[in-house]
Please model this.
Amino acid sequence: MKLIRNHTGKGKTARRVVSFAAIATSVALIATGCAGGGDTGGDGGGGGEAGAGGDMSITFIPKQLNNPYTDVVLGGGEEGAEEAGFAATEVVGPLEASASSQVSFINAETQAGTNVIVIAANDPDAVGPALEEARAAGAKIVAFDSDTNPKYRDVFISQVVAKDVALIQVQLIAEQIGGAGEIAILSATANATNQNEWIKFMEEELESNPEYADINLVAKVYGDDDDTKSFQEAQGLMQAYPNLKGIISPTTVGIAAAARYLSTSEYKGKVALTGLGLPNEMRPFVKDGTVTEFALWDPAQLGYVAAFAGKALADGDITGEEGDTFEAGELGEREVGENGIVIVGPPTQFNADNIDDYDF
Amino acid sequence: MSDTLTTAPAPTPDTSKTIAAVPKGRTGAARILLGRDAIMIYVLIAFVVYASIAIPRFASPVTVGFLLLDVIPVLLIALPMTLVIITGEIDLSVASIAGLTSALMGVLWAAGWDIGVVLLVSLLAGVVAGAFNGFLVAVVGLPSLAVTIGTLALFRGLALVVIGDNAVANFPPELTSFVTSKIGGTGIPTVMIGVVILAVFFGVLLHMTPFGRGLYALGFSREAATFVGITVNRAKFWLYVGTGSVSALAGIYWTLRYSSARSDNASGLELTVIAAVLLGGVSIFGGKGSIPGVIAGVLLIGTINYALRLGRISDVVLIIVTGSLLIASVVAPSVFDALKRWQHDRRVRRSLPQAALGTQPTP
Model:
C-alpha cells in the first residue's frame, strides 16, 4: 500500500523530468536556430527591400557545393557581383548534385526576395516550376554552366560553344593515341545536361569525320562527379577493355580521379587521358607524364560574366533578346546570341609547357 | 492537422513491462499531454514560433506552401514505415521504389499512353515491388534489412534500365500545376488533402484496429504475438505491400512536382524517412511509436530545413543539426529511463529495511 502511494507521489517527479526534457530540447533547438538567425538578419534586411535604389542582391545556386570547379566559378562570380555593384551576394546550394535538390533553395530565395538568381541546373526541367515562381516574384534568372530549359531563364552564360568543347577533346585524344584504337568516356552523372550535349557532339564527330574512322568508342561510364566512384569506374574500364587506348573525361572530378588511378597503375603513360580539368588539380599528373594535354575555359570568367549579365537584366538594360549587349567589367562587351546564350570565350589547352601560367 | 487523431486514451500496450519497470504514474489527460508524441509536438510548435519571430519572411503562407511541398514525399512514406518499424522490421527500398515508379511513368508517358493508365500502372508497379519485398521477408523468412538493402539496389537498377540516362519532362501541364496548386489563399497545397486522408487511415489502422494493436505485440515478441493469435507473416506481407504502394504514390508526386521523370529521383530519401520516423519516437527495436509523433517528427525536420535555408545557412550545418537532433531523440529517452530506474532502485533499497523492521516479530 505504502509503496503504491509512494509511486503516485513520485509521478510528479517524473512529470517534472519530462517537462524539463521538453524545455531543454526546445532551448537547444532555439539555440541552434539563433546562431543562424544572427547571421541572416543583416542580409535579409539589406537584400529584400531593394527595388528603388541600387541596393540589389544576387544569389548563386551551383550544381553542388564543395566542388573545386564550382568554387572557382563562384570565386569569379563573387568578384563580378561586387564590381557590378550588388549590395549582397549569397551562395547557396545542395551538397549533392541531384535533380530536384535545387528546388527548395530556389523557393527559399524567391521568398527572401532576391533580385537575381544565377543557377547551374542539375536538370533542365526539374527546376522549371520553381524558377517560374521566382520570376513571378520579380527575380531575374541567369543560367550558367549548365542550362535550364530556355523558357525558364532570361539568359544562359555558356563557357564556350558546346560543339567546340566536344571537338577539342576528340582532337586531343586522337593526337594522343595516334589516331586509332579503342576509347571510352568517363562522364559525370547520367543526366548532366552539358556533359550529355558534349558527348552527343563527340559521338557525331567520331562517326562523321573520316580522320577518326579508326577510333572506336567502346564505353560510356558515369562517375557521378564523385571522386571515389569516378576512380572505381576508371579502374573498371581498364579491366573491362584491355585494349583501351584512351579515356576522355569531360568533367573535372572525373579526369582528376582517373589521372590518380592511372598514375599509380601499370597503364601510366600507356593509356592516354584527356578531357576537361583544373590546372591546379592536374599539375602533378601532367608533370609525371600521366596526362599529356587537356582543356578548359577559365571558369572564373563564367561566374564573372554571369554577375554582370544579372546586373544588366535587373537594371532593365537588357531583356535577354538576341542582339542585346552589356558591359562585363574588365572582360569588355558581351553580346546575347540566339536563344539568349552569351558565350564567354574559347577553351584553353593545358600541357607541360604552359600549365604553370595558370592558377585555378 | 491529424495530430488530434488519437486523443482517445489508448489502452496500455506494454503490459509486459509493468512487472519489471516502475508502474506508470500518469493516466488520462496527463498521459497524453506529457507523452513522447506530445513532446515532439511541443518542440515543433516552439520551433515554428521561434522561426516566425527570428527569421524574416518565415511567417507567411508562402512558407507553408513550399515547406509542405518539400515534406510531402517524406510524410507519405513515413506513415507505412512507422508500422513496419513498430513490428521491428525495416524497409530501405522505399526511395528506390519511388525512383522506379518515376522512371516507369516517364517511359510510358513518352510512349504515348493515356495519363490515367500511366498513373495506374505506376502505382501497380509499387504494389508489386512491395509484394516482392513482403514475399521475401514474410514468406521466405529472410531478414528485412538484408532483403531491402538488396531491393534498394535492385529497384534503382531497374529504374536505370527502364529510362536510362534520359529525363521525361513534358507531363500534362494541368496535372503538374494541380500538384503544386494551393487551397485558396492558405498556402496549403491541394495534395495535402490526400496526404491527410492517408495519415488518418494509417493512424486509425495502427491505433484503433486489432490489426494495428497486434503490430505492437509483434514488435515486442514474435512468439508471444503468434501465441495470442496474430498471423505474423500475413501482417508483415501486407505492411510491405503498404510501403511499396505509398512509395509509388510518393514517386508519382515527385515526378509531377518536379515535372521530371528520372532514374535518380528521390535517391537517398529512405534515410530521411527513417530519421524522421525515429525522431518521431518510434523505437528501432520495435513495439513503440505512434503516427502523430511521426508526423510531428517529419514536420520538425522539414521546418528546420526550410528555416535554415531561408536563413541561407549552409547545408553542411543542416545535416549536422538533423544528425544531432536524431541522436538526442534516441539518447534522451534512455537517459530518462536510466534515471527513473535509479530512483526506483534507491527507493526500494530505502524502503526495504523499514519493511523488514516493521514485520519483525517482537519476542
